[in-house]
Specification:
The protein is an alpha/beta fold. It has nine helices and eight strands.
């Protein structure tokens, strides 16, 4: 069921790791290295992936190499959204992969790539076609973000929220399905590219979309799925019951489980982006999830 364990999500993005507390990722490197060691001690062959970086930054990769993090990984991952957030052209995707391939011998996954329908659904349709042309065959794993639009009454996981202007609201329009579950224009095109394209879909605690998502993923021919198991959520009531339900529902897919999000009461600062007070606690969470779902 578990294809891989991913350590954190966008650690070089201040929406996911606090650069004021850890400006040069020294604490992150220690945290990720310990987590990688704990996963390997629990499972001798499960691939470990350094969580998808955003921006795509070879300097970040070199720092992780120097600090021993990549010695504990079997792959590194990148995220890219050139039609929505990044300051580079969609046609530069092959060059962006080469930037990372030039500084590590590890395979480079694309664990999130997508196009919003914020301006028009036709933009997503064209972007999906072009992304498939550029990336299929160039990366071992490509996870399209995402299956569902983010419900408008939820919050996007980003630091600046409405202060980002239209950039914030694009977070809510990344799905192939609208919030009400109806398909957008790009859905039919996406189906042409499975199983080469997988899906990245984050499921919130007690997410009402889980069962319908499984139905859609199977209908589309998706075999590889990336999702998250939140350390912060592990302290919620009945958390393990929810994790069990989620992973049981996803048992027919090759799942990359992303371990991330610091519980507020266990962070140096009370925020999910904070480095943990005790790095070993995150490592134990990773090990416990691997023990439970890949044992």
């Amino acid at each position: 069921m578990l294809e891989a364990a991913m350590i954190w999500n966008e650690p070089n993005n201040k929406s996911h790791w606090d650069p004021e507390i850890d400006p040069d990722w020294v604490m992150f490197a220690d945290t990720a290295r310990l987590a990688g060691q704990a996963i390997r001690a629990e499972h001798s062959s499960l691939p470990r992936v350094l969580g998808g970086m955003s921006p795509i930054d070879p300097v970040f990769v070199m720092k992780m190499q120097q600090r021993g993090v990549l010695d504990q990984m079997e792959a590194v991952a990148v995220h890219g959204f050139p039609l929505d957030w990044n300051n580079w052209l969609i046609h530069e995707w092959p060059a962006k992969l080469k930037e990372i391939q030039a500084v590590t011998h590890l395979p480079v996954w694309v664990s999130e790539v997508g196009v919003s329908t914020f301006g028009a659904e036709e933009v997503q349709l064209w972007g999906l076609k072009r992304t498939a042309e550029l990336l299929i065959g160039q990366a071992p794993r490509i996870h399209w973000y995402s299956l569902y639009d983010l419900p408008m009454h939820w919050e996007a996981t980003t630091r600046h929220r409405e202060a980002e202007g239209s950039s914030y609201y694009r977070h809510f329009h990344m799905g192939l399905l609208r919030e009400d579950g109806t398909p957008k224009l790009a859905m039919e095109e996406f189906e042409k590219h499975t199983p080469h394209l997988g899906i990245c879909q984050w499921f919130h605690y007690q997410d009402h979309r889980l069962d319908d998502a499984v139905t859609w993923l199977k209908r589309l021919g998706v075999t590889h799925l990336r999702t998250g198991l939140s350390w912060a959520d592990s302290f919620r009531p009945d958390a393990l019951d929810w994790f069990d339900r989620q992973m049981e529902a996803l048992r027919d897919f090759q799942v990359t489980a992303t371990f991330c999000f610091t519980p507020e009461h266990r962070g140096i600062a009370p925020h999910h982006t904070s480095p943990p007070q005790v790095k070993e606690e995150f490592a134990e969470f990773c090990a416990s999830m691997v023990r439970r779902y890949a044992g």
